[in-house]
Design goal:
Blueprint (H helix, E strand, L loop, with lengths): L14 H11 L2 E3 L2 E2 L2 E2 L3 E3 L10 H28 L1
Antiparallel strand pairs: 1-4, 2-3
């Protein structure tokens, strides 16, 4: 999760709050239920808990990262495709 939170300080988020975000998202357990069958719990460090209050904020930040990556990729690829 460290990589995900590297840019948050640019938005004025303190290191103490970043540590809290990381602990909130790390070492969670999840399971699924399909047709009445329940899986065992599995440890996960990926994603955001469904229905969480912080979910939309994490989602919009993730979209901003994706748009920056996409913009840089287009900038790098465009000159190659036009030549």
């Amino acid at each position: 999760m460290k990589v995900y939170f590297t840019g948050w300080s640019h938005f004025g988020v303190s290191s103490k709050l970043l540590t809290w975000f990381e602990s909130y998202l790390a070492n969670r357990q999840q399971r699924v239920i399909v047709d009445g069958f329940i899986s065992e719990f599995k440890l996960t460090n990926d994603g955001v808990p469904q229905g969480s209050i912080l979910g939309p904020m994490f989602y919009f930040y993730f979209l901003s990262i994706i748009s920056q990556i996409n913009s840089k990729a287009m900038h790098l690829c465009l000159p190659m495709t036009l030549s």
